[in-house]
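LOG
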Amino acid sequence: MMALPVFALLMVAEAAVTSLRGHNVYALKDFAGSMSQLGINIAVRLAIGGALIGLHFWLYQFRVFEVAAGPWGWLLTFVAIDFVFTGTIARSTGCAFCGARTWCTTPAST
């Protein structure tokens, strides 16, 4: 998420420096196009993130059980997450890239 503001800052800095040096590297329409794409990207990310958080808050009212507060609740949560991602569910479906029945580090390009 930090890449978008850094990208915008570098684009503005590059446009300013080349303009001050007298080089016509950027056309205003190209710069405006890049900035509008960046703005739309940020708006879409915020909208999707907000909708996802809103969905979680709405689904919270239908919870089946509550995890106890404190260290035992956190431990239970991490054990459950570990079971889901490395336990029987992950073993039964297998790796999407190579078909292995265990967790795999095969890159997506293969």
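LOG (cont.) second protein
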Amino acid sequence: MRAIITLAVASIAITFYSAASQACMGPNSSMWLSPVTSLAAKMPLGKHPLALKVGLGDGSPGFPGQSFGRCTSCGCSSQIGALRGELLKAATKGNSSIVLIGEVHDNELHHRIRAALLGLYPDEDMQPWSALLGPIAFEQIRADQQLALDAFAALPPQTRTTADLTRLLDWDKSPWSKTSNYTPLFDAAVASRLPILAADPPRDAIRAAAKSGPSALPADERTRLGLDTPLSDAQNAASLAELEASHCGAIPKSAHPNMAFAQRYRDAHMADALINAAAKNGSAVLIAGNGHVRADRGVPWYLHQRAPDKKVISVLVIEVEDGKNDPADYVERDETGKPAADYIVFTPRAARDKDPCDELKSKAPKN
């Protein structure tokens, strides 16, 4: 059984072999991690003992029973830097890997960390590292925005900018633009010159699924996406509980089953986008919320059904809690005890002026 292992900065040295050279490429860790560490220091719980630490499953390549934090020939590599090297290696074309990295949507630090993890920051000579990665699919971009992505891809790679991307996507009209500052992540993705893909279904299709459930999709589409295979009773119960918690208990229980199906539809659609991207490029990357990235019932569940030949690596990026210092207390597991991710990155929590549940509850329909 795979277990999440606590990784301390000053713990056992690890031989990185090829992963070490990956982690040492381009800027040194202090350079490319400085936006991460400086922002983390200003956040609530920035001094939490788990902040900016990494936990991993004991079956992950290269790291069974070991830890990050070793000084290598290129300087002292952080835990995030070592994980970055491992993900870069896994995402190299030919390894047939799909890497999924999660987030808490309104935490800007999570967007900066993911840009660093994927090696998307340009090196000292401002050369993108596009040879190391496959296409990047975003939950925040819907399939009905494909024309905007096509227009962006048609622009000269040397001169196109994040402003071009957000203009074509009408990003200022997207609810995501009000959630957090995604600019650092978009900047990095644009600089990489890698293909940027839409992962989420069209908005109208999501709404129809949330209203009508399975009947909103044609039978052949449900079958193709793997939606005809039901979750286990335990998975379904956990999904409904997560749905209720994420909506602060403000949604009528009668709406839960169809909303849970809409969540499944989104997971299956994202998996489909990744399978298509990996078929053309060998590897692919997903940027999405932690609920979609978790391996027990999120996007990876559909990937394992439909593309069992692909290695799937799931990374949760989660916020630490005051007084909760044991990494094992943060690890959710399936009914067999298997962790819901291959890696967990612990971060300080975002500063929030008000409880996000307040607005949800004020707009919720009454039972």
